[in-house]
Design goal:
The chain is built from four helices and ten strands; from the N terminus they run βββββαββαβββαα. The chain is of the alpha+beta class and about 190 residues long. It folds into two domains: about 5-35; about 40-185, Nucleoside Triphosphate Pyrophosphohydrolase (Alpha-Beta Complex). Strands 4, 5, 6, 7, 8, 9 and 10 form a seven-stranded mixed sheet that branches. The protein has a three-stranded antiparallel sheet with strand order 1-2-3, with no helix packed on it. The protein is globular, with a radius of gyration of 19 Å. The relative contact order is 0.19.
Length: about 190
């Protein structure tokens, strides 16, 4: 049986970095790094009448670190804090995009990077309309998010996914889920 014998905290801040000592099936011991910052929630709001979706574009330091790309186009997301995942998605939709969302449809709860992270992300789809845009969005200035709200046609979103130009995995998964659940929106 595989089991974790010890966890040593290497860093404890916004996220935790742990080093786990593991006993494998063969009895040998080895180490693995674990990044632990809790769970997250993500939502792709879409307007059936206007055939559009609301996404955000923002700076992502890890992406910039390994590429020349400074911003990522992605579905609205955030870390689950004291509330449930659904409430997190609703809160983030307002903070990031100025959207008032009510009914969310759970697509999946999935491990984002099971080889390194404890994060489990709840993925939601949410119908919205133009009247649900009640605030400016943009994120919190004290968090230096500097978010740009993007309204994009569902046809363009599908084209980006098909062309391999939609490079955020959570967004890709939600776009494909929406395409499977509501193909008439993409016809």
């Amino acid at each position: 049986m595989v089991e974790i014998l010890t966890n040593t905290i290497l860093f404890d801040g916004w996220t935790k970095l742990l080093e786990a000592t593991v006993r494998g099936r063969d009895g040998r011991h080895f180490n693995r790094l674990i990044e632990d910052h809790g769970n997250a929630a993500c939502v792709l709001p879409y307007d059936r009448e206007r055939m559009t979706a609301i996404l955000v574009r923002q700076f992502r330091a890890p992406v910039c670190h390994v590429s020349s790309k400074t911003e990522v186009l992605e579905a609205i997301a955030g870390r689950v804090e004291s509330e449930e995942a659904k409430a997190t998605a609703i809160r983030e939709a307002f903070e990031e995009a100025g959207l008032r969302l009510e009914a969310l449809d759970l697509v999946s709860e999935a491990w984002t990077m099971p080889g390194v992270s404890t994060e489990r992300m709840s993925l939601f789809l949410a119908r919205c309309s133009a009247s649900d845009r009640v605030g400016p969005g943009g994120g919190h200035s004290h968090e230096h998010e500097d978010i740009t709200v993007i309204e994009i046609s569902l046809h363009e979103l599908a084209r980006l996914a098909d062309a391999g130009e939609l490079d955020d995995l959570k967004t890709f998964a939600l776009v494909q889920s929406l395409r499977l659940r509501e193909p008439s929106l993409f016809a």
